[in-house]
Amino acid sequence: MPVAPVSTFRETKVPRHIVCLTFDFDTQSGFIARGMTTPTPLSRGEFGLVGARRILALLKPFGIRATWFIPGFTIESHAGACEAVVRDGHEVAHHSWAHVPPAQQSREEEEADLVRANDAIARLTGRKARGYRSPSWDLSENTIDLLLAHGFLYDSSLMGADYWPYRARRGDQVELGKPYCFGEETALVEMPISWSLDDHPHFEFIRTPQGILASLQPARAVMDSWLDEFRYMKRGVEWGILTYTMHPYVIGRGYRMLALEDFVTKLAAEGAVFMTMEDAAAEARGRLCERSASGRIQPT
Ligand SMILES: [Zn+2]
Questions:
Q1: Which of 39, 55, 63, 266 is the most buried (most CB within 10 A)?
Q2: Distance separating alpha carbons of residues 68 and 91, to the nearest angstrom
Q3: Do 33 and 100 meet the contact criterion of CB atoms below 8 Å apart?
């Protein structure tokens, strides 16, 4: 018999398996942050505008509300495209202003960027972001503190679990040659992610002076793996959340869009409950509040 995780957390009577479809609407910001400012890489980011229109059109007939992590750069450069996201009822969450990873910033730089991007989101949506995802998934030692100070509900940048959100910690003690020591659990809900559930490493071709990353995997093979992640969650737990990460300039190619449409159709047939990350994080927080000391929904 295959071995599957078994949740010892309070089981719901009716199984509930949540899927968060998330789109990091970077456009040119990631290329600029890496110094790739010649016309072709910039146009590659520009293609995200095409991809975004296709994604909105795909999601609408399904009635799915997704979460769009939009850098302030994209909001201020491509206002119409971002307004279309809001108009369709999707959540807009925080993804920095300039797409510079926090791990490369001082605390002051990181906070200034956080505030600037949040102001752009407030102008776009009428309120500040409830969720955050760091550029390139690399938090600094200050990020959790700053997110708490600025009223965030959740972060989606860490990989310490797959189906169970957990409380983000601060102050883990790490020293070469010494045992790992967990720090304090905070009120911030961590909505875990994985590079394996991100379209970028599967599909992109990147050529830099340091080398070439030529992924370019068949889209349906990747989506089959993603669907298996959902099936494994269903097999093992009564309640869980699975988060998929995509980028309009990556997933927006025609053959990937067809694969994505089939993938979403299959998820729906498997019983997936599609939610925004904010709504899913609020549900997870309710469960975490019921749970005592360990803070994790997953078995201990
Ligand atoms: Zn990004």
A1: 55
A2: 6
A3: yes
Q: Mark the residues whose beta carbon lies below 5 A from ion ligand 1.
A: 24, 26
pTM for the model stands at 0.92
The dihedral through the CA atoms of 89, 90, 94, 99 has a sign that is negative
Residue 25 CA, ligand 1 centroid: distance in Å: 7
DSSP structural state of residue 145: H
pLDDT digits (tens, 9 = 90+) for 20-41: 999 999 999 999 999 999 999 9
CA of 228 to the centre of ligand 1 (A): 25
Beta bridge partners of 131: 154
- Is 300 in a helix, a strand, or coil? coil
The rounded Å distance from CA 205 to ligand 1 centre is 16
For residue 174, report the distance from its CA to the centre of ligand 1, in Å. Answer: 27
Those residues with Cβ within 8 angstroms of residue 80's Cβ, 6 or more apart along the chain or in another chain: none
Does residue 62 register a pLDDT over 50?
A: yes
